[in-house]
Amino acid sequence: MADYCDLAPTHPFHGPYHDSEYGFPVADDDVLFERLILEINQAGLSWLTVLKKREAFQAAFEGFEVARVAAYGEAERERLLNDAGIIRNRRKIDAAIHDARVVRELQEAFGSFKAWLDYHHPLPLAEWVKLFRQIFRFTGPEIVNEFLMSTGYLPGAHREDCPVQSRILAAAPPWMDSFD
């Protein structure tokens, strides 16, 4: 059976994500937040559906600027629920707003969302899941695994023989520290 490294490279949506984002370390809190929210929205759907709606998500969530989303109230929640360009699931939208507020708290306590992730790295996946479930919403094992893998905190985004893997290794993702 083919895997992501076989199917993604020539695909118009999967290709760019596979080749330049998936598994690479991320330093920007807004990008980390975007990845978390996209993974949450993928639950029960295909990743292709999320990638096709990504531009609409970026517009609807105002570039995933954490501070802006954290300040959303009922008017913004209703706007999102009525936006046909995104996945209009109340639980996922509520989770995004809640999780933005959590990220703001983490930024205040640790300086950044990335610093919070770095503080807890390396943890085994089960511990990451437990930690995420304590403070975030809609973060089960698959969502946490994909979020951490996509942002370089867990290995496995690409096969060893995938041409992108060498670029990932050159970027020194956090999971590499686990093997020193």
Automatic annotation (TrEMBL):
GO biological-process terms attached to the record: base-excision repair
A GO MF term: DNA-3-methyladenine glycosylase activity
SUPFAM superfamilies: DNA-glycosylase
The entry's keywords: Metal-binding, Zinc
Binding site for Zn(2+): 5, 18
UniProt keyword Transmembrane helix, yes or no: no
Transmembrane segments: none
Keyword Zinc assigned: yes
Gene3D superfamilies named in the record: Hypothetical protein, domain 2
Record Pfam families: Adenine_glyco
Chain segments annotated as coiled-coil in the UniProt record: none
Name of this chain's protein: DNA-3-methyladenine glycosylase I
Species per Swiss-Prot/TrEMBL record: Pistricoccus aurantiacus
